[in-house]
Specification:
Layout: H1 3-14, E1 26-29, E2 38-43, H2 46-55, E3 59-64, H3 76-87, E4 91-94, H4 97-101, H5 107-114, E5 118-125, E6 132-144, H6 145-156, E7 161-164, E8 169-176, H7 184-189, E9 194-197, H8 205-210, E10 214-217, H9 220-223, H10 225-239, E11 243-245
Parallel strand pairs: 2-3, 2-11, 3-4, 8-9, 9-10
Antiparallel strand pairs: 1-4, 5-6, 6-8, 7-10
Length: 252
């Protein structure tokens, strides 16, 4: 498939121009003009790029790209990443907030569904503007904290943190992966039974405890693996392009 056709499809499918973002989403580094195989990763780190080069993929899709609002000099590790992409003729495509917000392959909606919840609306704003990047989800029959814990283990492993300060019966769940601790008060005001995000933040611990909010911290990296994998599966199904997931967890 021609690179220009595939990136145009991704731009439209992910609606990257509709969501304000500090990330420069879309094609960030141009490589081969034809794409036969795809790699996906959470971060455009040197490990991911080198793995993509060794695997011989033509397009690497990441959630955290190389270029943000601030112009960064091509020196040091930033230069090494760009150099590795150019030497391997690898196209680098980034989808940050658009991949959080997407109702089919977005981090939040995919994770909610994997936990057995049905996405029903957006949750939380983007960097600016009214666009919701999170997900509010529900389940037909309430489950216990123990059942939710078991489902979390099945999908996130045993590295997550669960501060079960809220209702013992859970029917509604708000999900905002990555660095979403600051939205705990919003989850409380929406009266959701549990809130799932990535990184914990000390300043919100006592708020959660004192306001009886169930909060799960699944890890910034781990909670944002779901979108790139789902997008890879989608492209493989729709465009018959095989994909590989390059897994370099940070433990954060």
């Amino acid at each position: 498939m021609k690179t220009c056709d595939l990136t145009e499809y991704l731009d439209d499918y992910l609606e990257i121009k509709k969501i304000p973002d500090s990330s420069q989403n879309g094609l960030q580094v141009e490589g081969k003009s034809e794409v036969e195989s795809i790699g996906v990763a959470v971060d455009a780190c040197l490990d991911s790029i080198q793995a993509a080069a060794e695997a011989g993929v033509d397009l690497l899709i990441v959630h955290h790209g190389l270029f943000w609002e601030r112009v960064e000099k091509l020196v040091g590790s930033h230069y090494q990443r760009v150099k590795a992409l150019l030497e391997g003729e690898i196209n680098l495509y980034c989808a940050h907030l658009p991949l959080d917000a997407h109702l089919e392959v977005g981090n939040n909606a995919v994770l909610a569904r994997k936990l057995g919840f049905r996405p029903i609306s957006g949750f939380g704003p983007a960097d600016s503007g009214p666009v919701s990047i999170g997900c509010l989800a529900a389940i037909d029959s309430p489950i216990s904290q123990v059942e939710l814990f078991d489902r979390l283990v099945s999908n996130l492993g045993d590295e997550f943190r669960a501060d079960f300060f809220g209702p013992s019966s859970i029917q509604s769940l708000a999900v905002l992966t990555g660095g979403g601790a600051s939205f705990i008060p919003l989850a409380h005001s929406r009266r959701v039974d549990a809130y799932l995000t990535g990184e914990p933040k000390h300043s919100f611990y006592h708020f959660s405890k004192e306001n009886n909010v169930n909060v799960i911290y699944g890890g910034h990296y781990e909670t944002e693996t779901f979108g790139v994998i789902a997008l890879g599966e989608h492209l493989q199904r729709i465009h018959d392009l095989p994909f590989q997931f390059f897994h370099f967890p940070t433990g954060l």
